[in-house]
Write a structure and sequence with these properties.
The structure is a homotetramer of 277-residue chains. With 277 residues, chain A is an alpha/beta fold. Chain A has eight helices and 13 strands. The two termini of chain A are 18 Å apart.
């Protein structure tokens, strides 16, 4: 079995040498190694897959000490990520994730699905996954998020996945799950932001439909992009056809993004992702 | 040899029957036929490829009379389209088109290249294509366009191709070449409009780079889309790499769009294209 | 609501005129119409979407009589196609289809799933779809297919979908479901035929992984192709990674192919498909 | 300015540490670094981009000595690669490369074009690139290759590019340019090997057309793959249309492959390529 060491810090001379020296002295063989220095932010990123017995706390401590201030050092956990999926009424991304969850394809466990509607309860429960209805109607945003946090508090959660969750989360809420919320917005960013994106796309006569999975930050739908993809469409496709094409590409893009995130292959450098695939 | 009849008119009952009846009575066999009714505009579009001897004026006249008011009826000309390419300093789209022109791949003849810079003169002339330098510096937009029109007036021109022409054409100028200007804007519409699109894309951390070929209308870079395509990029690509990727996809997209346009496969329905490929 | 008329026959002069004349006299408006004459086989194909009240038997009869011998004329049924999915042990295509079935996305109803293994029973039954275990072990091919036919006989079946069914069907069996079996073979045709395609692909160092959905004919994995697609891979992907990529693209390709087939958009011309998308 | 160090050797413990230690002691900062251990061949590959003054012979010598037997160590040359393009009668890949050559886009210089036909002479010479006609007719393969080698001997050549060269090179010839011949075969490997691939593809009714750029080895068209890509086609495309689509994708794929090769981003591990893009 291999383990994955992830390191992130301000760039300086000799980092690879120092880190690999520690790994060598620990008797670990490097199977695959990728580093990247983001020239804009002058930050160093490294993902190293090693073979051999890993004394995790000792290695992490040695690397941290060697690098000094600002080092983020950790081994990717052996356990699957614990995930809560938030949805509204659309099932396509959710369904694909529940199947992949059932067959353990994404290095994660869906511990619960939360929705502001009741309509997908039976569907979710048929997969033996807990479903929580957290209504938003008649509540202030604060009120609703409070209820949401209470439900989330009843589970141990590593990541939130917004699988067509049609509500905007407040900055305060987002802060609580910094770098741990993945979204596939109901618009194919960065092209058509806002409501009715498929009607906009139809009227514009687009020839491709795309989807973007990204981390959620305060800036609505402007967080770091993880995966983007498009599929071709043509003039005889109605706005409904475009929406169906959009659902298909969203399903693919979200699954791909979560695979990368949950395998600890995605780093953040400011508003950009560094992905060691 | 086959001929292509194109018909466009307000939709009504029996159009296909009437038109094919005329073709039948003219002894013409339909090889391929595509119709489309655009539900938004309630317009009818038909492209019919026929075999047999075509009495062109008589067929067109009979179809026009049968359909009545508002009919646009014509046979695709047998002659290649006469094209002027407008460029600024970038050569990638231009070079690809000059090669395709030399080997007669696009059902067109490049009768001249016009630029607001001198830098591509030798390159263009090595293809034995006339090059006209029409400087813009120090001139008002009107003054420059006047000079442009004078040069264009010295050629018989069916289409203008803006192959990275970095100047905005006035509505008056565009009107003179309505539906006859194809552009591949220096931004990958509809995502990043404006200056320095690749720097914007880099900072946004996009995972695909796209290009859009479209007809030019008064609305800057918002005219009917002909072809759109993307190519994948990743975090280690600099803004310069993204620009290189962009040039490659622009070159492909523009050649593809011009092939469709010059083979009379593209109809316009409001701001949308109907493409019978 | 619109209805779809499909016509197929040997090509001759005036077919479109005759057929549209009948539709016109029946008071039907043509919304979308596509014809294609396959030059190799000299066969004519036409898909016409009409609005208005359709007297189905009368229209079909009139068109058939008008065309004469060899005409295949029918309206696409209003009812969803009745489908049996055959699987072995892999769940990825099956799972996607069961979700799409549950939300009625493919103009079809999965009436049963049949497998030569028991392992997917609980999964299938959680979708409230009947599961039949038809073991093959210890049986001759004839014996197994007899058992299969018995199970299929207990359902009304329009189409069989081989969603990673790892057994070869006999020509006799295939004949019983001519043009009604869709397969996504366990190899990315037409590249690597046979066993262990992903190991072959890995050793060959391929840069794309593809999938092909096709109709089943006597020629193993050589039937008419409906949809083909590829996804990029690279050197750091193991044979297992390639297999995972293959599963993802198979899932997409099969769903896309079934949508086209079940919406009566796919015609067969010899070993080629004509697809009016 | 940065320099690129490439290292290849049998895998063993501590390689990255040793190499980066030498770079550190030479005062070189690592800008980007990629390693990969090919599990099948147990070979180690590393591409390191460094900043700072490089004493090239000393660094290479230190790294070689440190690694020991079997080490292949070198800095990517600063000079563009010297390239001879071999063609037969098709111009599409050639034309694209000559344009990119003229604008110095591929880190290479085309020192000559060689053909077994005269037909492209004027085209090549219009780019001010020497053209050599080396006829094959009436000669044995040995005789022709002798003539070819004589012409090649008159230039200093780093790489041969077979840009639709329709002759098979002998193992002896290939050996003289081991790992230094790139081909884009006249068939879209690995699907349709042999003559008339587009007719084969048409009859098979394929839905994608692909192209493969690879290094040439003794095994005809089976050498290590560098780039593969496909483009979608459909039933109304004739074999000629498929061929045109094929030319477009070949042009793209070959340019992309040469960019990677000439920027020293491609390593060979047995019959697979390791590409640090």
């Amino acid at each position: 079995m291999t383990r994955v060491l992830n390191v992130e810090c301000p760039d300086k001379l000799g980092l690879v040498h120092v880190i690999t020296g520690i790994l060598l002295s620990e008797g670990l063989n490097i199977v695959e190694n990728q580093e990247f220095v983001d020239r804009g932010s002058q930050r160093f990123f490294m993902r190293t897959e090693v073979e051999g017995y890993v004394n995790e706390p000792r290695v992490v401590d040695r690397v941290r000490t060697a690098i000094g201030e600002g080092a983020i050092v950790n081994f990717a956990p052996l356990e699957p990520k614990r995930v809560v999926i938030l949805v509204s009424k659309e099932h396509h991304c959710l369904g694909d994730l529940l199947i992949r969850n059932q067959f353990a394809e994404l290095n994660s466990t869906v511990v619960a699905v939360v929705s502001n509607h009741e309509s997908l309860r039976a569907f979710v429960e048929s997969f033996k996954v807990p479903f929580h209805f957290v209504p938003a109607e008649g509540l202030s945003r604060e009120g609703h998020e409070e209820a949401l946090l209470k439900v989330l508090g009843s589970h141990e959660v590593d990541f939130l996945v917004l699988a067509k969750y049609m509500r905007i989360l407040s900055p305060g809420f987002v802060k609580k799950f910094e770098r741990r919320i993945v979204n596939i917005p109901h618009s194919f960013l960065p092209a058509f932001i806002g409501a009715k994106p498929y009607q906009q796309a139809y009227e514009r006569g687009v020839k491709v439909i795309g989807a973007t999975a990204h981390f959620v930050t305060d800036a609505l739908d402007q967080g770091p992009i993880i995966v983007q993809q498009v599929i071709p469409v043509h003039h005889s496709h109605s706005a409904q056809d475009l929406a169906a094409a959009g659902r298909d590409v969203e399903q693919i893009v979200l699954a791909r993004a979560l695979k990368l995130v949950f395998e600890d292959r995605v780093f953040l450098s400011g508003n950009r992702t560094i992905i060691f695939d």
